[in-house]
Design goal:
Layout lengths: L8 H12 L19 H9 L6 E3 L18 H4 L4 E3 L13 E8 H5 L11 E2 L1 H11 L10 E5 L2 H8 L2 H6 L4 E2 L4 H6 L4 E4 L18 H10 L3 E3 L4 H10 L3 E5 L10 E3 L3 E3 L1
Parallel strand pairs: 3-5, 4-6, 5-7, 7-8
Antiparallel strand pairs: 1-11, 2-8, 2-10, 3-9, 9-11
Helix pairs in contact: 1-9
Length: about 270
């Protein structure tokens, strides 16, 4: 499914910024953004979801990955890409304790992909895909205010299966459509993460040149943390087996003051 070209990128960005802007919603000094939607009651409910006590690390094993894009780094292992959050924070650092709550897996790859549950590169995950996946998976997939939503496309699994890490990092990929910004804003979720390198679909859905258009609205204007390179394969198999797609999720980033992104080892517990 090729991306549908949208209008001129700067016009679309301006419209989205006006429609989905959260700046000032929680005060001028706020560093939490949409993590403000998570409260103690939501975290207590998330803890109650643990039934079996089985935990899943959602951090990608980066052995075999090419070095990251930092270039010229003596220790190339340190430059290797890793599972991460991208956030809009100030010098106060990452609000790590806020990244705990109800996680929900939307396995779009299994719902709309091939026999392996993999979406093709360039597949834009639309709002209808997210809604239909949640409906097909059942009641435990309902998306609620304050949730951390995980979207599986199967792209990391394919990269691992084929050993083509370069394409995973720099090539085309399935991912969230720019048009999902309305859904991301309306549902008042706390954060969203995927198993792709860049979260959003590549190539981008604009006729002209564009660079990370969804990031340019979601992170600085909406205040929505975006997670990239999350390994959702084993968790997805377990969710498909027991029919439960909700869980306690603890995904605190490193407390790196002033950073706009941080590695994370997310843990889901069912």
């Amino acid at each position: 499914m090729p991306p549908t070209p949208l209008g001129p990128v700067e016009e679309e960005l301006a419209k989205a910024r006006a429609a989905y802007r959260n700046r000032g919603r929680w005060g001028e000094d706020d560093v939490l953004g949409t993590l403000n939607f998570v409260d103690d009651a939501i975290r207590a409910h998330a803890a109650s979801l643990v039934r079996r006590g089985r935990s899943f690390s959602l951090a990608a094993d980066t052995r075999g990955f090419p070095p990251g894009r930092s270039g010229g780094v003596a220790d190339q292992d340190a430059a290797r890409p890793s599972t991460r959050w991208s956030t809009a924070v100030s010098g106060a650092g990452h609000p790590g304790d806020a990244f705990t709550g109800r996680g929900v897996l939307l396995d779009v790859g299994r719902a709309f992909g091939d026999a392996r549950g993999e979406l093709p590169d360039g597949f834009p995950v639309l709002e209808e895909h997210l809604r239909d996946t949640a409906e097909a998976q059942g009641a435990t997939s309902s998306v609620r205010r304050g949730d951390i939503v995980l979207v599986r496309t199967g792209r990391l699994g394919r990269a691992r299966r084929l050993g083509e890490w370069g394409g995973y990092v720099d090539g085309n990929a399935p991912g969230l459509s720019f048009t999902t910004l309305g859904w991301l804003h309306r549902t008042e979720i706390a954060a969203v993460a995927t198993d792709t390198w860049g979260v959003e679909v590549r190539p981008y859905e604009f006729a002209g040149a564009a660079v990370s258009p969804l990031h340019r609205i979601a992170v600085p204007d909406m205040g929505l943390p975006l997670g990239g390179m999350w390994d959702l394969e084993v968790l997805a198999e377990d969710c498909a087996a027991d029919g439960v797609h909700e869980f306690l999720l603890v995904a605190a980033p490193l407390p790196a003051g002033g950073a706009a992104g941080s590695p994370v080892n997310p843990i889901a517990v069912k």
